[in-house]
User: What shape does this take?
Amino acid sequence: MGLLVAGHETTANMIGKMVAMLLADRTRWERLPADPALVRTAVDEALRFDANLGFGIRRYLTEDVEVDGELLPSGTTVVCSMPAANRDERVFADADDMVLSRSPNPHLTFGAGPHACLGQSLARTELQVTLDVLLRKLPTLQLVVSIDELKCVEGLLVGGLRTMPVRW
Assistant: This one.
């Protein structure tokens, strides 16, 4: 039950955010119907690019760890910022740009290792199918307001958009 609820809320919110990110720059949206093979990589790039990934992931250190010259002792609880990791210039060239063809894309949106999201394959599939259908059925889709006017849902760790006015 937890997987269903967690997976529904996050994916439903990500659909709106992903479409808004793609429509914010018209050339992004228009590249996708012209090259449908980009849908897969565009979804992963939207997942990486989204800065609204919640508070962060808490981890309890079972051994001393050095981070950027600072020693974090065993027994410390740390909060890892996935948005910061997903914009790391040492891992992602042009990290602050949305590169629809980015591959490989080792983003940490779904976590990693033993803490990786169990539903990530389903989430990717749902996002890819939704984007593919929108591109085929509504290729002229566009935002009615600027991206800066969109309001996020407040109070949720992984929120979405309150509204996203569009026309086609």
In short: The radius of gyration is 17 Å. The chain has one domain: 2-52+99-167.
